[in-house]
C-alpha cells in the first residue's frame, strides 16, 4: 500500500502541471488582459470589453507585448512598456509559465494585481467560507439520503419508492444556480417572503458584536440555510440511489436469508447485519462527495448569495483578469481535489480491508 500511495502522490505533480498549463494557454487568447483593465480604468471607460465588440485579439496582444492597441488609447509607448515589465509580460509566455509553476510549487502565489495583498493571504481568508459551505452541504446530504435510501430499499417497488424517485430525479435535473435563484425569490424577499437573509455568512459587524455566543451560532445558521440547501440538492440523488442499491444488493445475499431463518427480527437483520456492509461504499465516498459539492457549487452559490469564499474570489478575479488570483485559486482547487481523491481511495481500504489497490495494479 505504501508504494501505491507514493505513486499517487508523485502523479499529483504532472496532473497539476497539466491543469495549470492548459488554463495558462487559454488565457493567451482571452481578450482584456490586466494591462488593458488598468488602461480602461485610467481612461474612465469602466468596462474594458467595450472595445472588443469587433471580436479582435487585443487580449493576446496585451499578453504578448504587442503595441497595436496603444495608438487608439493615446498613451505613451514607454508607459505601456513599463506596465508590461511590472506585470512580467515582457517575457515569453513559456518563461512566465515555468517561473509561475516554480513559485507555486513553493506555495509562493505572488500578489494580486488589484488588491495589494498576497494571493496566499486571500486564499487563507476565503478558504474557511468555502470549506464551511461544502462540509455542511455534504453532512446534510448524508443525513437525509441515507435514511431515505434505506427506506426506499425496504419498500422497493412501492408507491413511496416510485414517487420519491421521481422527486429526486426532478431535483437532480434542476441546475444549482436556478434552484438558488428560486430560493432567493421565495424566501429571501425576492417576491414573496423575507424569512432568510439574501447575502453574507453573518449579520453586519454592528449587529454581530452585540449577539451572545448562542445568538452568533443561530445567526450563522440563519444566513447559511439557503446556500447550503441550494448546494445540497444535486447530491441527494446520487447518495440516495447509491444507498438504496447498496442495501438491495446486501438484502439479497445468503447471510441475510440465513439470519431471517434463525428468527431474527427484521430491524435487527437490517441494522445489525445489512447496514454495516451496505454503508461501506457510501461512507467511503464521503471525500469524493465533499469535493463535488465544494467544486461544483462554490462558484455559483457563493456568487449568488454574496458569500466571500474561494468561488466568488475566483469569479471576481476572472472578471478583473487578476491572473495571480485566478491561477492561485486554480492551483489550490486542483491540489485539494487530487489529494482528496487519494484520501477517498484510502478511505475505501480503511473501511473494507478486502480492497487492495496495489494488488489490482500488479
From TrEMBL:
Gene Ontology CC annotation, any one: plasma membrane
Entry membrane topology: Multi-pass membrane protein
One Pfam family per UniProt: BPD_transp_1
Compartments it resides in: Cell inner membrane; Cell membrane
Keyword Cell membrane applies: yes
Keywords: Cell inner membrane, Cell membrane, Membrane, Transmembrane, Transmembrane helix, Transport
Any single GO BP term: transmembrane transport
Stored InterPro entries: MetI-like, MetI-like_sf
Transmembrane segments: 9-30, 129-150, 162-188, 220-243, 278-305, 325-351
Location of the ABC transmembrane type-1 domain: 127-348
Gene3D superfamilies reported in the protein's UniProt record: MetI-like
Positions in coiled-coil regions: none
Tree of life domain: Bacteria
Similarity-based family: Belongs to the binding-protein-dependent transport system permease family.
Name listed for the protein in its UniProt record: Microcin C transport system permease protein
Source organism (scientific name): Roseicitreum antarcticum
Amino acid at each position: 500500500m505504501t508504494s501505491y500511495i507514493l505513486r499517487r502522490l508523485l502523479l499529483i505533480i504532472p496532473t497539476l502541471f497539466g491543469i495549470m498549463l492548459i488554463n495558462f494557454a487559454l488565457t493567451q487568447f482571452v481578450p482584456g488582459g490586466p494591462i488593458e483593465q488598468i488602461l480602461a480604468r485610467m481612461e474612465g471607460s469602466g468596462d474594458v470589453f467595450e472595445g472588443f465588440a469587433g471580436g479582435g485579439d487585443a487580449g493576446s496582444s496585451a499578453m504578448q507585448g504587442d503595441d497595436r492597441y496603444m495608438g487608439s488609447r493615446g498613451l505613451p509607448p514607454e508607459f505601456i512598456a513599463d506596465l508590461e515589465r511590472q506585470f512580467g509580460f515582457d517575457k515569453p509566455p513559456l518563461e512566465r509559465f515555468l517561473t509561475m509553476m516554480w513559485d507555486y510549487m513553493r506555495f509562493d502565489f505572488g500578489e494580486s494585481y488589484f488588491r495589494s495583498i498576497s494571493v496566499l493571504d486571500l486564499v487563507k481568508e476565503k478558504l474557511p467560507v468555502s470549506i464551511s459551505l461544502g462540509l455542511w452541504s455534504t453532512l446534510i446530504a448524508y443525513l437525509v439520503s441515507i435514511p431515505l435510501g434505506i427506506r426506499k430499499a425496504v419498500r422497493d417497488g412501492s408507491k413511496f419508492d416510485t414517487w420519491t424517485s421521481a422527486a429526486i430525479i426532478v431535483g437532480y435535473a434542476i441546475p444549482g444556480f436556478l434552484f438558488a435563484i428560486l430560493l432567493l425569490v421565495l424566501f429571501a424577499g425576492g417576491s414573496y417572503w423575507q424569512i432568510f437573509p439574501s447575502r453574507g455568512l453573518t449579520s453586519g459587524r454592528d449587529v454581530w458584536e452585540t449577539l451572545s455566543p448562542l445568538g452568533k451560532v443561530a445567526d450563522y445558521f440563519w444566513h447559511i440555510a439557503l446556500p447550503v440547501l441550494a448546494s445540497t440538492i444535486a447530491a441527494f440523488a446520487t447518495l440516495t440511489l447509491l444507498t438504496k442499491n447498496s442495501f438491495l444488493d446486501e438484502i439479497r445475499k445468503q447471510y441475510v436469508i440465513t439470519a431471517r431463518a434463525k428468527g431474527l427480527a427484521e430491524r435487527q437483520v437490517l441494522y445489525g447485519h445489512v447496514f454495516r456492509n451496505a454503508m461501506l461504499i457510501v461512507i467511503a465516498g464521503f471525500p469524493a462527495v465533499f469535493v463535488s459539492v465544494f467544486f461544483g457549487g462554490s462558484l455559483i452559490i457563493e456568487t449568488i448569495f454574496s458569500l466571500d469564499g474561494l468561488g466568488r474570489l475566483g469569479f471576481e478575479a476572472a472578471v478583473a483578469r487578476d491572473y495571480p488570483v485566478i491561477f492561485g485559486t486554480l492551483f489550490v482547487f486542483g491540489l485539494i481535489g487530487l489529494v482528496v481523491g487519494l484520501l477517498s481511495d484510502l478511505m475505501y481500504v480503511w473501511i473494507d480491508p478486502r480492497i487492495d489497490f496495489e494488488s489490482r495494479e500488479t
